[in-house]
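Protocol step 4 of 6: structure prediction from sequence.
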Amino acid sequence: MTDSVQHDSAVLLHFTLKLDDGSTAESTRANGKPALFRLGDGSLSGPLEAELLGLKAGDKKAFTLEPEDAFGNVIPDLIQYFSRRDFMQAGEPEVGAIMLFTGMDGSEMPGVIREIAGDSITVDFNHPLAGRMVHFDIDVLEIDPVLEAGA
């Protein structure tokens, strides 16, 4: 066990993600349940992990990541067009709704209904925060790399 965040640490923290307009995109503080992240498992971007390295339990840090360092830029190929008949079993879609779609390999991926125009329905499979600058405000609660080693 170490007292600072390392490349293979498990980190328990509270975070708030805000967008440029000041709106809160997500916050663990709202429900009082901190998040557990494992550095090096691919769930966090490299630049985000770099912001956490060296922090200690009790540390607070605020930082901003560019879109490519947070949730990525918008990938045009992930915006797809469907026919209204593709939704016959799922029911009438609504703009802004998030629906699960089954990929060719059987995996499920969420897509956001962006536009409905006549028989054409536009679905965006990019992360909802793709292309957005994100402001992080974190509180490190606990560091326990032993969890990582035992996983």
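Step 5 (inspection) to follow. The radius of gyration is 19 Å.
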